[in-house]
What does this fold into?
Amino acid sequence: MNILAIESSCDETAAAVVADGCDVRSNVISSQIDVHRATGGVVPEVAARLQLETIVPVVEKALADAGTDWGGTGDGTGIDAIAVTQGPGLAGSLIVGLETAKALALAKDKPLIPVNHLAGHLYACLADVTAFAFPYLGLVVSGGHTEFVLMRGHHDFELVGSTRDDAAGEAFDKVGKLLGLPYPAGPEISKLARGGDPSAYEFPRAMLDQDNFDVSFSGLKTAVRQAIRDRIAGDQKLPKRELADVCASFEAAAVDALVTKAARTVRATKPSAVLLGGGVAANRRLRASLSRKLGVPVRLTPPEFATDNAAMIGIAAYWRRSEALNGGGRFGVSADPSLALGPAATP
Ligand code: KG4
Ligand code: ZN
It folds into this structure.
């Protein structure tokens, strides 16, 4: 089954062709990072307009790269269904992808499969699985979310814990801004951290002694601000060595908090494996530390599928193909900026 997947939840416009939930035949991503760098973050209105400009060429390229066109349905050569991110994300950005997918579904007479963006991040860890061993514990760490979710079956989720304030990626981005680093700062901080001492600063690991599955990053961000407040005034930058030490110490604190709470959640929920998904899943320290400390196998998102992409939406869609919408049902779907991961729909 060939699925054309479209993802436009934030500042990436992406399309992919995925066969049978595992074979990524094309994966095209048009990033707006250069534009948003100038404003130090994503301006939703600007993001939506850029989505509109790029979505058609991105879809055409995904089809061309996969060596397919619309073709027939079910003959193995053409596109059998269209998958699209329904939410969560920025309303304007989501609408562009969703309405494009609906229009294509109508014009080409294909079924439509709406997908939760966060489910996509978790399914990116499962592309190579043939025998699923539920439950999994999903750890979604992105720019907008930090969630521990128990995955009991296909598209069947229960939220176990989350952040009380900033998402993990947001914390990296905000600390990066304090340090004068370009948006998005996650990759930059982790690169600089490699040359620094993670014990140079003692930054707080919030809520570790609390008997829950939640994390918090706002205190950590404030601690970094205080540590550098007297060191950089105006446009000044920290000396290279100190910058690396702050990055390493911040990264170590953020990773420690996530790994400690993940370990507690594993003990309570006893999953067969942990899935690490979302943009922050690209972080090397987090990948290494989770793999070492959890005592259960950790399935890491392949780095090329960690940040937003449509391949993950195509993989996730395959596992809800029985719920594909046809006829008028396709047009009743609307974008949901705060769509949550939840239990499977009862048949
Ligand atoms: O999943 P994603 O592409 O978009 C959302 O759905 O939010 O995640 C983007 C986030 C950004 O906050 C970015 O700074 C962070 O992922 N990120 C990283 C790394 N690569 C991307 N954070 C820490 N370390 C990284 N290597
Ligand atoms: Zn994402």
User: Anything to note?
Assistant: The mean pLDDT is 94. Strands lie at 2-7, 12-19, 23-31, 81-87, 112-116, 136-141, 146-153, 156-162, 273-277, 298-300. The chain is about 40% helix and 20% strand. The longest strand covers residues 23-31.
